[in-house]
Structure formats: C-alpha cells, structure tokens
C-alpha cells in the first residue's frame, strides 16, 4: 500500500522521499519519481524544516521504527502511522512522543492496495492543527470526500478497528450465504447470482463485486483458494473493546457483538477445518487486501 501511496502523491505533484528495506521497492519508487534513501538515517538531510514522516509497517514493528527514527527527528516533527495498529498502543505512542516534543498522528486506511494507488478512505486522528496543515495531503490520497478528522491521537485507528470488525461480520454473512446457494438443489450459476446481487439489490456492495471478480478469476469452486481464513488482529481487538465497554455508565452489561465475535471464532476455528464459506472469505481478503490465500501445494 505504501508504494501505491508514493505513486499517487507523485502524480498529484508532491515531492516524496522514500525508503524501504527491500532494494527492489526502493528502485520501483525511484523509477516512479521519488527521491530514495537507503535507510531512515537518510531522511535527516533530505527533509529540512518540519518533517512529516508517514510509516506503513505492520503494527508489531512500529515501536522499532519509531526508535530508529529518533536520531533524525526534531521538536515539532510529525509521524503518521498508516498501518492497522491497536488504538491503545497509538495513544501510548502519542503520549511518549509528545513528551519529546514530537507529534504522532494515526490514519486508518480502507480500500486495500487499489485504494492506496487510486484513492482510499482515510480516518485520521491527531492534533487538529496538524490535520488542517496537511489536509491537502490527505485529500490527494483519498477518493473524493473520502477522508475525515476523527479526533485526538488514536481516534483514527479506533474508527478503523471497528470498521474492520464490521467487515468481518459482513464477509462472514456473504460466505455463509454463498455456501448455502452452492449446496442447494437448484444448480445455481453463482457468477450470475453475484451479478444480480450487485445490480440494485439491498446487498449490492464492493464486497459482492469482489466476489464476482474472484469467481471470474478462480472459478466458482474456488479450488485454488484456501478454506482456512487468517485474521490479522482488528476483529480480535474489536471484540476485546466490546468486552471492556458497558451499555451505559450505570450497568455492568457488556456491549454484545455476537456477529463479529462469531465471525472471529469462525476464522480461528477454520485452521484445520476448511470450508467453502472459508474459501469465499479468503477470496474476498485476496481481492481487496492482496492477502495470500492460495492453498499450500505442499
């Protein structure tokens, strides 16, 4: 996704200095017109004045990247975490960096690699003044009207976390429904079902459109797609958040999330128990996120 954003920013007239541990990625960014440095230290001389550094890395290594950036940052510099980090960790990082005179922002990015390349949906957290200062950047990276300020540091990742929890439930319902359709006595053309579902029906959506595309590319049996579904954390975090919340301040009743919780459990239980529902969900994950979902040929 980071590469797609680099290319989109360049097309929009921004100057970009980029790096990546992978030399091939650096060469691709350079070919697109970005100025490339070999490592994070290279930013020091290439970004005079207030730095705005956007990191797109797995949440497990954000702290490592922040530590590596420490030697090149000056008071007032801004770091934006564009990955799917836990909002509580984002709040912690924001407080730690604020104590050092730095600004930490967060953005939940929806739309997958295609959105990153052509315009995504962005949910942005951090100080309002920095949002206002860099708003044109967010606008240029988003689909028309597809960005918004959510609140203080952590709010962007929180809203994206809930988005992904909802996504779990929606994908699960599609997978279950299409397994019923496939196993019915009617010998249905599932490609045609996706076409009609995605042409004016109540459930018309990008998800149905992606399933339609998966059927075209892989066939309706999805034979090459794994029926075991991975999960990347956001659904688990959403369930945990619901368990920590209460319906209101005067009750001990937790916020019930049976649909999201069941969809998370399905993914966990799918290990060693593949199914057509799992193949549909995996196919969708591949279509919008580029996740590796092919069956292990070994």
Give structural notes.
Helix 9 packs across helix 12 (234-244). The strands form two sheets. The chain has a five-stranded mixed beta sheet. A two-stranded parallel ribbon has the order 1-2. Strand 4 (78-81), helix 5 and strand 5 (103-110) form a beta-alpha-beta unit. The mean pLDDT is 92. It is globular and about 70 Å long. The protein is built from 14 helices and seven strands. It is of the alpha/beta class.
Main attributes of the structure:
alpha/beta, 298 residues, five-stranded mixed β-sheet
Q: Could you give the order of the helices and strands?
A: HEHEHEHEHEHEHHEHHHHHH
Number of E-type strands = 7
User: Number of helical runs?
Assistant: 14
Strand content: 5-15%
N→C terminal distance: 29 Å
Overall shape: it is globular
Identify low-pLDDT runs.
none
Q: Taking strands numbered 1, 2, ... along the chain, how are they ordered across the largest sheet? A: 3-4-5-6-7
**Nearest-angstrom radius of gyration?**
21 Å
What is the residue-mean pLDDT, rounded to a whole number?
Answer: 92
Task: Please bin the fraction of helical residues.
Answer: 40-55%
| Structural class designation | alpha/beta
Report the major sheet: 5 strands, mixed
